[in-house]
Amino acid sequence: MSVPSNLDAEKAFLSCVIQSISILNEAADYASPKLFHHPAHKRIFESALELWKEGKDCDLVTLTDAMSNAGTLELSGGAAFLTECFMSPSVTSNWREYLEILRQNHTRRLAVSAAERIIASAQNPAEAGELSEVVQKALVAVAADAESKGRIESLKEVALARISAYEEIYKNKGRLIGVTTGFKPLDDLTGGFREGQLIVIGAATKGGKTSMAVNMATRAANAGHPVGFISLEMSSGELFDRFVASYGGVDVSVLSKAPTAQDIGNIGRAAHQASLLPIFIRDEGDVNPLQLRAAMRRMCAVHKTRIIVVDYIQLLSPTDRKDSRERQVAEASRTLKQLAKELGITIIALTQLNAEGASRESRAIEHDCDLFLVIERDDSGNWYLNIKLARACGRASIPLAFRESYMRFDEK
User: Fold this and answer.
1) What is the spatial order of strands in the sheet that 198-203 belongs to?
2) Strands (E), 260-334
3) Sign of the CA dihedral running 299, 303, 309, 312
4) Beta carbons of 371 and 388 less than 8 angstroms apart
5) What does each C-alpha distance from 147 to 104, 153, 382 come to in angstroms?
6) Which class for 92: exposed (0-12), middle (13-18), buried (19 or more C-beta within 10 A)?
7) Of 162, 182, 285, 325, which one has the greatest count of Cβ atoms within 10 A?
8) Boundaries of each SF4 helicase domain copy (predicted)?
9) Comparing C-alpha atoms, which of 22, 17, 21 is closest to residue 33?
């Protein structure tokens, strides 16, 4: 099987780099020697980067001299091969396209290598029990090694985009910019849920996390925003009961006992109302961050979801079972933040709190999120939704009323 590569594209990219220092200045930020398949091309680009790091000009003459002094010129085909790369057919304005070809082939090579490791493990009876973990780690390595496509922006460039955003806020003065949280005081403080945000809702065990998530999901969906719900604890049927009770106004106790004829009519009406909401549920107990990424991508691609709820973080299975529990939970939290940015959605993740009121098993959850909300109940039985940490607003406490019969939080 041939190894995925495009040597002409590698030469064309090197030609652009040698011809233009401005291209090297930009490419050095996110291009890497490992993107090249041909060893000589890799050494040439490494040498070009060394000149760039030293603040020296990189052209055919200086590069030839630098590689000669470093003893890598002859290993890379000599001056004749370097000149061949420099003279390779290329259009400098197309250097990004050449780089993208290198990036895609590099990823394909990683995928081939991962597949070979998986096949070798699958054929080894001694590794049968660890096959699932080998597969997961191999695929995670492919994703993690993908080169960054980020670029450095000047404040002037950023300012142009932000000024447009400020103007949009001014034009929509009095109207919510983001997706409603379902609670006006919280909307007023935060501007609603925004793209790329990780929202974490914490509470003690049986402290109302799922009820709050169901309320927020229902109100966002009712406003026309598709919502995904990844339930690691409840089945889809149990979760639907919550939606029927909260949205349809049916006493939750009726759903678990022998209903009367009148109850059946109310349940049918409420179930029909709930079924019309654009909410999509996946219930599966054993989901790791890699599988979570795939599930979220599918929800966004198929159902155009703008919000996805994960109930709850500590129930995510680890990618690497040998890591400490703290590192496993931290990986899950980091994946959620990355996915929110990558998919351009809001992720609402629920977390268990310990006796001190911090996220159980990892404080990384609080560090990764954009908004950390905590549901609390005081000694007098009063409920509050407290903003503990926020990137865009201050701390605040919002009084709530909990309708236990309907498993629903309302503004007080």
Assistant:
1) 279-283, 227-231, 307-311, 346-352, 198-203, 371-377, 383-390, 396-403, 408-411
2) 279-283, 307-311
3) negative
4) no
5) 10, 18, 50
6) middle
7) 182
8) 172-412
9) 17
Residue 308's pLDDT is what? Answer: 93
Q: How far apart are CA 162 and CA 158, in angstroms?
A: 6
> Using the 8-state DSSP alphabet, how is residue 379 labeled?
T
> CB atoms < 10 A from the CB of 15, how many?
23
Q: How far is CA 295 from the centre of its chain?
A: 12
Q: β-strands 198-203, 371-377: how paired?
A: parallel
**pLDDT at residue 313, rounded to an integer:** 79
For 7-147, the fitting CATH number among 2.40.50.140, 1.10.10.10, 1.10.860.10, 3.30.43.10 is 1.10.860.10
Helix axes 7-19, 95-122, angle to 10 degrees: 140
Report H helices in 223-260: 236-248
Beta strands 396-403 and 408-411, pairing class: antiparallel
Q: Please, how many CA atoms are within 13 Å of residue 282, restricted to the half-sphere of its CB?
A: 23
Distance CA(196)–CA(1), nearest Å, equals: 40
d(CA 314, CA 391): 23
Tokens of 130: 């660890």
DSSP one-letter code for 178: S
What's the CA gap between 410 and 412, in Å, rounded? 6
DSSP category for residue 373: E
**Which residues contact residue 407 at a Cβ distance below 8 angstroms, ignoring those fewer than 6 apart?**
211, 214, 242, 245, 246, 252
pTM, two decimals, is 0.65
Q: What is the pLDDT of residue 147?
A: 45
Cα–Cα–Cα angle for 296, 297, 302, rounded to 5 degrees: 100
Q: Which two tokens stand for residue 30?
A: 């996110």
- Could you read off the pLDDT of 98-118 as tens digits, one per residue? 999 998 898 888 888 888 888
Looking at residue 240, the DSSP 8-state letter turns out to be: H
Q: Which CATH number fits domain 176-411: 3.40.50.300, 3.20.20.105, 3.30.420.10, 3.30.565.10?
A: 3.40.50.300
pLDDT in the model for residue 362: 59
How many angstroms separate the CA atoms of 322 and 78, rounded?
47
Q: In this structure, what token pair is assigned to residue 189? A: 């403080």
Domain residue ranges in the chain: 7-147, 176-411
Instruction: Return the exposure string of 321-339: e unless at least 16 CB atoms fall within 10 Å of the residue's CB, then b.
Output: eeeeeeebbbbbbbbbbbb
